[in-house]
Amino acid sequence: LLALCDDFGCFSDFGCFCDSGCFDVSGGSAARLGQAARRFSGGGGSVAQLRLQAAPGFALRSATGGARLLQRGARQLTADGVDQEGEQPRFCRPCPQIRTTNHAVSVKRATARNTTWYLKGYHSSALTKCDNQILKILVDEIQAKAFHHHTNGRPEARKIVWFGPEYTYGGTKISANDNWHPLVTSLATWLSVEYQLPVFNSCLINFYKDGSINIPWHSDDEVELGPNPTIASISIGAARDFHMRPKGSTNIAWSQRLASGSLLIMSGATQSHFQHAVLKDPKVKDLRVNLTFRLTRDGRIPEDLPVSDQANPCVLPVDSSITCDLDDEDSIKPASNLPRLSNQAHAISSLN
Ligand SMILES: O=C(O)CCC(=O)C(=O)O
Ligand SMILES: [Fe+2]
User: 200 with 331, same domain?
Assistant: First the structure.
C-alpha cells in the first residue's frame, strides 16, 4: 500500500488518496485538515471535510498525505464551488512534490527586559526537493498576474500577487482575491499540517526580478493580522539576504541568507519589536519569489476560533503555534557578534 501511495506520489491530481484504506486519520492533523478543508471550500460547505468523514477506514497515512488529499479536494472545489466527486478535476496538472526533509523547525526565543521579543524558526531545506518545480509554476502561472502595489501613491518596484480577503498593505488596500491557485492552496495546507502552524487564509507573493529589487524596512503589523501574528515565509529561486533590526535602530541584529526552498517563521512579538528587509544586492542576477502566508481576520474560520473582546481571535497563542524546544534565556547582543547562519544545514535563528 505504501508503494501504491508512493506511486501515486504527488504527481497525480488524486494525490495520495488511494481506495485501499491505507490511511488513518488521527488527532491534530485531522483537526487541522478539517479547518483547512472548511477554509478552502469557502467556509460554509465543507465538502472536502465531508469527503474525509465519508470515507471510513481511509484517511491520512501522514500529514503530507493529508495535505495531498486536501489539495485534491480543494482543486475539485475550485472549479466553481461544486463538488465534482468522481469526475476528473479540471486542474489537471502535476502538482509539485511537496515533502519535508526534516520536520523540525528550530526555534529560539530571545528575551530582553523580561519580554519575549521574538519567536521564529528557519528551516533551510523545507522544500528543496521541489523548489524548481514550484518556481516553474510561479513563473508560468502566477507571475503574469503580478502587479505593482502603490505605497503612498507611488508604485513599488516589486511586483506582488495577493490571495486572501481585502488587506491593507503599506497603508494601501489590496482587493480581495479568493481565486486561489492550487499551488498556493497546497502550500498553505502543507504548512499547517507539517509544522502545526495556523491554517493560513492569506498569502502575499513577492517577485524580485533580480538583485535590483528590494523590500524596504518594515514590520508586518497590518491591523488585519492582529497582535503577535505568525507568518510563514517560503523562498524560491535566487538566494537573498533577509535582515532584521530592532525598531528605532539602524543596526542589523540578525541576517539570514534565505535559500531556495527555505521556510522562515516569524512569530510572537517579532513584528512589534523588529523590522525586516531584503535589501538591493547587485550581485544577484536571477529571480527570487517569496511567499508569505498570513492569517487575516476577515477570512477566519468562525466556528474554530474563540471570540473574545480582548484579543484578535485570529491569532493563535504564541506557544501553541509552533511545537519545538524553546530556548528561553537568550539575550540580545550587538550585531557585530552575530553569526551568519547560511551555511548551516538546519540553521537556528537566534540573536546569540
Ligand atoms: O521577501 C522576503 O523575504 C520578505 C517579504 C516580506 O517581508 C513581506 O512580504 O512582507
Ligand atoms: Fe514583511
Answer: yes
